[in-house]
Amino acid sequence: MKNNVQIKTYTPKYKESFKNLNIEWISNYFEVEPNDIKALDHAEEYIIEKGGEIFSAILNDEVLGVCALIKSNTKDYDYELAKMAVSPKAQGKGVGLLLAKEAIKWASEKGASKIYLESNTKLQPAIKLYEKLGFKEIKGISSSYNRVDIQMMLVLNS
């Protein structure tokens, strides 16, 4: 399956999928928060126009997964890997890994040295994926989300 999946950067055609997959995923495990709605309803303004990117994993014209890189306005990191969601039917099939690898490659090509993310320790498959990619747990950056109980950073070798 993952051999046929294409990772594409953002176009408005994928906007609804970005929002719907995230709402479905967040609702499944947590509560959708006001900051989620802001980012998902205004993806272009909140992510794209500020120098970030949204990636979609596509198979046969269907979006199976999404994730975003949000450009940081702090000195702590260059981008935040955020809003990763994979359709239940595609979970466990390597779609999240493909998305994350493409996002990391994209950030690296833009000269990024650090990528940050927030997650929750009850999402063990996600945490294992991030660790596999080289993310390490960090402390000390405040989060605007109630569900966050782990923060991780990937330092890129430039």
Automatic annotation (TrEMBL):
* Keyword Acyltransferase recorded: yes
Q: Which UniProt keywords apply?
A: Acyltransferase, Transferase
Q: Boundaries of each N-acetyltransferase domain copy?
A: 5-157
Q: What is its EC number?
A: 2.3.-.-
* SUPFAM superfamilies registered for this protein in UniProt: Acyl-CoA N-acyltransferases (Nat) (SSF55729)
Q: Which GO terms describe its molecular function?
A: acyltransferase activity
UniProt-listed InterPro entries: Acyl_CoA_acyltransferase, GNAT_dom, NAT_camello-type
Q: Which PANTHER family match?
A: GNAT FAMILY N-ACETYLTRANSFERASE, LD18367P
Quote the protein name from its UniProt record: GNAT family N-acetyltransferase
Species: Flavobacterium quisquiliarum
